Amino acid sequence: MVYTGRFHLEEHEMKRIGYETVDMIVEHLCTLQDKRVIQPKESEWNDALLHENIPMEGESWETVFEQLQHGVLANNAYPNHPRYFAYVPSPGNYISALAEFITNSFNIFAGSWILSPGAAQVETATVNWIKDMFRFPQESGGLFVSGGSMANLTALVVAKHAVLQNYIQEAVIYCSEQTHSSIQKAVTIAGFQPEQVCIIPCNHRFEISISALHTQIQQDCENGRKPFCIIANVGTTNTGTVDPIEDLVSLASQYGIWVHGDAAFGGPAILAKPEAFTGIEKLDSLSFDPHKWFFQSYDIGCILVKDASLLKNCFFALPEYLQDAQTTNQEINFSDYGMELTRRFRALKLWLSLKIYGLRTFQQAIQKGLYLTEETQKIVQNSKYLEVITSGLGVCVFRFVPSTYESQETVNELNENIVKDLHATGFAMVSTTILTGKKVIRLCPLHPDTTIQDIRETLQRIEYYGDKRITNKKSMVVS
Length: 479
What we know:
One of its GO terms (molecular function) is pyridoxal phosphate binding. It holds the Pfam family Pyridoxal_deC. This is 2,4-diaminobutyrate decarboxylase. The protein has helices at about 10-30, 45-50, 60-70, 95-105, 115-135, 150-165, 180-190, 210-220, 245-255, 310-315, 345-355, 360-380, 410-425, 450-479; strands at about 140-145, 170-175, 195-200, 225-235, 260, 285-290, 300-305, 385-390, 395-400, 430-435, 440-445. The N and C termini lie far apart (about 80 Å). Helix 13 (about 410-425) packs across helix 14. It folds into two domains: about 110-355, Aspartate Aminotransferase, domain 2; about 365-479, Aspartate Aminotransferase, domain 1. By secondary structure, the chain is an alpha/beta fold. It is globular, with a radius of gyration of 25 Å. The chain has 14 helices and eleven strands.
């Protein structure tokens, strides 16, 4: 039998398809401001995609490219849109996107030095830059992972191995009611029980209460439990709040507790507002997501550990089929420092972006995000319909409040419906959350291309839809 299966394209075909793809991407990015942020549901296309049988014979590039453009890419929200204010935006940058194309085309295996010394050197250099940014000590280290969820999990597993030597029965993990949900997932995967997580209340600024935490730690010690780890929020998703890091580290040092900082969202603001991050260099570990406020394409997260040797102590394994990949002291296998053996060359896009744009460009973009947040707060404060709930790093939280008294439940429902009305137009995307029992609206303006006018028009639409719903409700009552 002759096997003819080949994934071969002639050189001219590869160039033609590549040029068409680049043209499509550039056109999309250059016209993004004029597009809907969130798309209406196209159930017909979705059904066609969901029920399509696996093709035994291939189709032409033109046919599949058409389906890709109009049936797949056009049916998504755009987290890199200047009016995408929901959750945590991912503005990205073109160099980062090109780096992904290079990485995937060269198909670099970034797990071992023997296969990719160039990639290992770039990752080492880029991690060192991140260490410097967060003022971590020389003996610290880290690696790039898929995102904050994996970074938080990695930190918790390393802490468990270093502090508890994996004897976890009486261990207690402390976090605030504003801590990200990925911590709960990490706790479960790391083998802890739900009752080993102690949720500490927040103060009026949505920071973890140091006094409540201290009281709880003392009670746990008296009851024979082992205070093990504190999660410090370094820019919460809900409000952009940074916990008092210095106070947490000081308290933890009295009891030998590991302190992990979740800076997945807020971390980059250290370049623009360093005073908010006092004590960050004293954390035992830190997670950080460059694909959020550091303008990288999905996906890339980073985990830093104050003592780099703890990563390798936790994750090193050398089965017989990897004997050839052993390293010297000058070489590094990043697969020995985390859970992934097979690893993408994630570091390249961040390295290239920093090399080409320079850190000052990142700093200025982050400063603009903080400025836009402050301006959002001012506009909301001057509105007769909207009230500020809180404002933190890169996030303004507010809600629409009717001039006449309505029940909390009614106001909550109203704000939820306002957001749905806004999304139906596609003009902008925001998100809701719940704070102190109130359904509130989050606006997170991180994109460097976002304008004050974008924000003003978004807030005007929120006011309009709220007023319209109240007017319609009154009309129904009268009739």
